[in-house]
Design brief:
The complex is a heterodimer of chains A (about 280) and B (about 775).
Chain A (H helix, E strand, L loop, with lengths): L6 E4 L3 H10 L4 E3 L5 H6 L7 E4 L9 E3 L3 E5 L4 H6 L1 H6 L1 H7 L5 H6 L2 H7 L5 H8 L3 E6 L2 E6 H4 E3 L2 E2 L6 E8 L4 E7 L9 E7 L4 E7 L7 E5 L4 H13 L8 H20 L18
Parallel strand pairs in A: 1-3, 2-3
Antiparallel strand pairs in A: 4-5, 5-10, 6-7, 6-10, 8-9, 11-12, 12-13, 13-14
Chain B lengths: L19 H5 L15 E7 L5 E7 L1 H4 L4 E5 L25 E2 L5 E7 L2 H8 L3 E6 L6 H5 L13 E8 L3 H7 L2 E9 L2 E2 L7 E6 L6 E5 L4 H12 L6 E4 L15 H13 L3 E4 L2 H7 L2 E2 L2 E9 L5 E11 L10 H11 L9 E9 L14 H19 L3 H8 L8 E2 L5 E2 L4 H12 L1 H13 L3 E13 L12 E7 L5 E5 L8 H13 L6 E5 L16 H28 L6 E4 L2 E4 L2 E7 H9 L14 E6 L6 E13 L6 E11 L6 H21 L29 E6 L15 H17 L9 E2 L3 H10 L2
Parallel strand pairs in B: 1-13, 8-31, 11-12, 16-17, 22-23, 29-30
Antiparallel strand pairs in B: 1-5, 2-4, 2-6, 3-5, 7-17, 8-15, 9-14, 10-11, 10-13, 15-16, 18-19, 20-28, 21-22, 21-27, 24-25, 25-26, 28-29
Helix pairs in contact in B: 10-11, 10-18, 14-15, 17-18
Classes of the chains: A alpha+beta (about 280), B alpha+beta (about 775).
């Protein structure tokens, strides 16, 4: 379990990173390395060059500019969990961050790394889609903004070009209630099913699952007050997605998790309640 | 016996482990820390097929890769792990013409470091002709789809046993039920993986082998035997071992290849398993099916059990014992557990398959048998509408029945079976539980309690530590009065340096910090079986008591001569000897030692010079039974299928305790592993014979957040052996899975669920709940 041989370069600017990526098409960016390093050790990926972006100071910001919450791609999961601005302007991220791996993993893993890795069972890609966020990427041709809804193509697959680097994610201010729920076998594991549910307060909204289909999709849905009718709505919304497998339990869980995420959105009162107020959802085992 | 019990200071005390400071500060030295200049490292090319003929190999690119020193195949190293007598087949240490499981070593690449070895191993071209694999145990018994080994039947072990009068008793019972219990492949997943390093010493011609093993002398013997070398030419050193759990009781193909390579290259050579190799090639365990029929009466008395025990032994018998045989043969003999079920009929079939060989994992047969035995009792209770605790009471062996001969002829020494259950029921609050349960059920919440009353045969004459029924201790009071003792045990985290020192310090009359325990070096330790089968406490501890006592007698004799008092008037303690009632007439052990080694003319006639001796201890009984009760309270979420363990009680009886702190640590660890067995751990093979769970993101282990606080209480029913000690290394994992899944059955009783498999996954729960409403 040793990686194949590779070159290693540490950079301090995005320009420098992009230049290296352009010159070596099979290079990989390393930030937290929480997914990449295991893949390299299994020799499932064998880049000729690792471009270490950890030294780029310009990617480490969390800013609320009055319109957007902007999170630099090098911000660590634990920093997101702990950040007061994020708690204030997009509290669903604070809740979701705590479901990512364990403390040691959260201390290293980054927002940008997770967005780019595009594991369909992970929290950030679905958050970006659910929040209508835009992902800012920089390449040799300059900077472009990609709506998160257009960023994901499928399993571990995005529109990011090999010579592009994610710079930041730009999240518009929340208009409506947004709830979150996730279920995993053990605390910190990738989700068996997770969901973000947005409720406009008028019986309409969106559900964005993760761990259910090959990529996160923000599915519009009706949100009737009646539980049975809502279950029906979740089923309908699921019907529009390519489900990862045909296990009965997967569908069952997706419905239940959407329901829990919706209940979460209802419980938030003025703005938001702590996740501890919600029974179940992430019990150990 | 009376003398050893005299004023014990350290035995029974909650002494902190002397091992912990080095372990907790990262100072411990494990096998991979062994590094010497010029050491080469090995990477293995392993079979990607469960079953295939090797039609050719092209290893030229491997041989010319940078840093490569040797590339070995079976032709270089033609050694079989078993001579073919016992099981008719023996695993070649590197595959010979055919591969029989995914992960089987095929080629060994020896290079200057592991990176280069792995780079080169990738270049190996092995041509395989795939064959249909044998994957299903029941099919395998019928030799379907084919034989795993052309020259040997798939059923490599078959045994039948019937209590006299079984058929009549079974037929005459008023009630009958049937059930099939299945366990899923698991493995030990030690924190430190396996590893071996070998260093030839050109000066002496001897080979030093560093091994991460539970049995230093056994692996030395195995290597000597397999390589055809005199055993005094091999020195085995066991550094710190980060967990064994039975999995490190075997000698593996890699061990032999590494030692062979070191000899033939004249270089130090090391191999350390990575995690994927561990999951592929460490012995697996718990691949069993029990088809059970039970006869019982209206009052809940269980009369007879018929059981067809099957175990999938994998592609080869592990060396030097097959886990399939260990799991089934002992399960068949203790299947009635703590209950006086008078009749049993068992048929055992152990089969070959195209999977990794089965070996030992903590508890071996026990977690399986307890799961079956408690599952039977729960089924009887539910079918009769009786309380599960009450049915256990009705069937429990009574204190006046000891020594008790069970239906399979095993003799149980005294235990506290009923008492342990009653105490555990009290601690968990069973009296009020049914009320709480029904209130919560009305709210749609599903809580349950599972009771597991277990028996744990310990200190057996033969176990995975081999057929060495004794242990040995070399003890020396040094010329300064400090005490050094060496043992043949192979601790893998049990704290023997603490517990054995406690026993010896009491006997020799010195302080704990004056005793050093050595182990894990065949050059200094006396011959012993090693650690496994819950034998180190009762047998190793017994040997420590005997050795300490003999040394004590030597010191008393010497003191009596020097203090001019009768031997029976001499007392020993706190580093000195004195005349009873006259504390002024004293001499320190240091002074005694000085005389024994230096002023030897003062030694009384007939006493040897020095203070050194070797003592051995073999218990008179061939087995001593520990016992206890585990009760788990769980809540099952019928929506997600997740199970939360809310409350857990263990009442444990392992005879006299050497160190309650260490006993409780063993219990906590066993319960944690039980949670893994019950809910998480599962080695899954695809229908094509590929192992799908080759990393710890697929093979789920319990984490700290999954383990509840555990209430522990000790009962003490001493054994008849030295010190009254019984073994306790496995009981907690024997008892736990049955308690945990029993609690799931109880919680989901409204859905008519009776758990019939280990582990129970969220998918299972969802399936049961959604299909049986």
């Amino acid at each position: 379990m040793k990686p194949a041989a590779f070159e290693y370069r540490r950079v301090t600017t995005v320009t420098e990173a992009v230049k290296l990526l352009r010159d070596a098409p099979d290079a990989k960016v390393i930030a937290g390395g929480q997914s990449l390093v295991p893949l390299m050790n299994f020799r499932l990926t064998r880049p000729s060059l690792l471009v270490d972006v950890n030294g780029i100071k310009a990617l480490q910001h969390v800013v609320w500019d009055g319109t957007f919450l902007r999170i630099g791609s090098l911000v660590r999961h634990q920093q997101i969990a702990d950040n007061v601005e994020i708690q204030k302007h997009c509290p669903v991220l604070t809740v979701a961050a705590k479901h990512i791996g364990h403390w040691a993993i959260r201390n290293r893993g980054t927002m940008g790394g997770s967005l780019a890795h595009a594991d369909p069972a992970s929290e950030w890609p679905a958050a970006a889609v659910a929040l209508n966020a835009e992902i800012e990427v920089e390449g040799p041709q300059g900077v472009r903004m990609v709506p998160a809804s257009e960023f994901y193509l499928g399993y571990y697959s995005t529109v990011l070009q090999p010579d592009e680097l994610i710079v930041q994610i730009r999240i518009p201010s929340l208009k409506f209630r947004l709830g979150f729920a996730e279920m995993a076998r053990r605390r910190g594991d990738f989700a068996l099913a997770g969901a973000y549910v947005e409720d406009d307060g008028n019986g309409q909204g969106f559900v964005t699952w993760f761990g259910v289909a090959d990529k996160p999709v923000r599915v519009p849905t009706v949100l009737p007050g009646n539980l049975e009718a809502r279950r029906e709505a979740w089923q309908q919304a699921l019907g529009t997605l390519p489900i990862v497998d045909d296990k009965r339990s997967r569908i069952h869980l997706a419905v239940q998790i959407a329901e829990r995420a919706w209940q979460h959105s209802q419980l938030e009162g003025a703005k938001y309640l702590s996740e501890e107020a919600i029974a179940g959802g992430d019990q150990p085992l | 016996m009376t003398e050893q019990a005299m004023r014990p200071q350290f035995m029974g005390a909650r002494v902190k482990r002397v091992e912990d400071p080095r372990l907790l500060t990262g100072q411990a030295r494990y096998l991979d820390d062994i590094d010497v200049p010029g050491m080469l490292e090995v990477a293995f090319v392993r079979s990607p097929y469960p079953s295939a003929r090797i039609t050719g190999m092209d290893l030229n690119a491997v041989k010319s890769a940078p840093g490569v020193r040797a590339v070995l195949t079976f032709d270089d190293c033609p050694i079989l792990l078993w001579q073919k007598d016992t099981y008719q087949v023996g695993q070649p240490v590197l595959a010979h013409n055919e591969v029989r499981y995914v992960g089987e070593p095929v080629v060994a690449v020896v290079a200057e470091d592991r990176y280069q070895a792995e780079d080169a191993a990738e270049l190996a071209v092995v041509h395989y002709e795939s064959m249909e694999p044998v994957l299903d145990m029941e099919q395998s018994i019928a030799e379907l789809p084919r034989r795993v080994h052309a020259d040997a039947s798939n059923v490599f072990y078959h045994k039948e046993y019937t209590t006299q009068g079984f058929a009549e008793a079974f037929a005459q019972a008023s009630h009958h039920l049937t059930a099939t219990f299945r366990t899923t492949r698991q493995t030990a997943v030690t924190m430190e993986p396996r590893g071996t390093a070998a260093m030839p010493d050109p000066a002496s011609g001897r080979m030093t082998v560093y091994a991460s093993t539970q049995s230093p002398h056994r692996i030395r013997g195995d290597l000597a035997e397999l390589l055809g070398w005199p055993e005094n030419q091999i020195r085995v050193i066991v550094p710190e071992v980060g967990g064994g759990f039975g999995m490190k009781a075997n000698t593996y193909p890699e061990d032999v290849v590494v030692v062979w390579a070191a000899r033939h290259l004249g270089k130090p050579v090391k191999w350390v398993s990575d995690r994927t190799e561990s999951l592929l090639s460490d012995v697996h365990a718990r691949d069993d099916i029990h088809e059970v029929e039970v006869a019982y009466q209206e009052d809940g008395r269980i009369i007879a059990i018929r059981d067809h025990l099957m175990a999938d032994g994998g592609a080869y018998p592990a060396y030097p014992f097959s886990g399939a045989v260990g799991e089934t043969s002992l399960a068949s003999r203790v299947l009635t557990g703590p209950y006086q079920i008078p009749f049993i009929e068992t048929v055992i079939d152990c089969t070959y398959s195209n999977k990794t060989p089965l070996g030992a994992y903590r508890g071996v047969w026990g977690p399986i048998a307890s799961f079956v035995q408690e599952g039977i009792v729960d089924r009887v209770a539910r079918s009769l509408g009786q309380d599960p605790a009450e049915v256990r009471r009705i069937n429990m062996i009574r204190p006046d029945q000891f020594p008790f001969r069970n239906a399979a002829g095993m003799i149980y020494d005294a235990g506290s079976y009923g008492e342990s259950m009653e105490e555990a029921l009290r601690l968990i609050g069973y009296k009020d539980f049914r009320d709480r349960q029904s209130v919560l059920r009305a709210q749609g919440r599903y809580r349950g309690i599972g009771i597991s009353v277990f028996v744990e045969p310990t200190a057996m004459a033969s176990s995975e530590a081999g057929s060495v029924g004794y242990e040995s201790v070399f003890i020396r009071v040094e010329p300064t009065g400090k005490v050094t003792a060496a043992m043949g045990l192979g601790p893998t985290g049990q704290g023997h340096e603490t517990t054995m020192a406690q026993l010896i310090a009491d006997q020799v009359g010195v302080n704990l910090e004056d005793v050093v325990i050595l182990h894990g070096d065949t050059d200094s330790a006396p011959f012993g079986g090693g650690t496994g089968g819950s034998r180190s406490g009762p047998i190793g501890g017994g040997a420590a008591l005997v050795a300490g006592r003999e040394m004590r007698q030597r010191l008393v004799k010497l003191a009596s001569h020097l203090l001019e008092a009768a031997e029976e008037d001499i007392e020993l303690g706190h580093g000195q000897a004195w005349v009873a009632g006259v504390p002024d007439r004293a001499i320190t052990i240091r002074q005694l030692a000085e005389i024994a080694y230096t002023h030897v003319k003062r030694i009384p006639p007939g006493m040897p010079i020095g203070l050194e001796l070797v003592a051995r201890y073999q218990p008179q009984q061939s087995v001593s039974f520990s016992n206890g009760t585990h009760i788990a309270e769980v809540e099952v979420d019928p929506v997600t299928g997740l199970v939360q363990v809310l409350n857990y009680v263990v009442v444990n009886d392992c005879g006299r305790l050497i160190n309650p702190l260490i006993v409780e640590g063993q219990i906590h660890g066993g319960v944690a592993q039980g949670i893994g067995s019950a809910f998480l751990e599962s080695l899954q093979y695809g229908s094509d014979g590929q192992l799908l769970t080759t990393s710890l993101s697929d093979y789920l282990l319990p984490e700290a957040t999954d383990v509840p606080r555990i209430t522990t209480k000790h009962l003490v029913t001493p054994s008849a052996g030295e010190g009254g000690i019984k073994g306790m290394g496995e009981g907690s994992l024997i008892g736990a899975p049955a308690a945990l899944v029993g609690a799931v059955s109880d919680a989901l009783a409204p859905f008519h669920v009776m758990v019939d498999r280990l582990p129970v996954t969220p998918d299972d729960v969802i399936e049961w709940v959604t299909s049986r409403v």
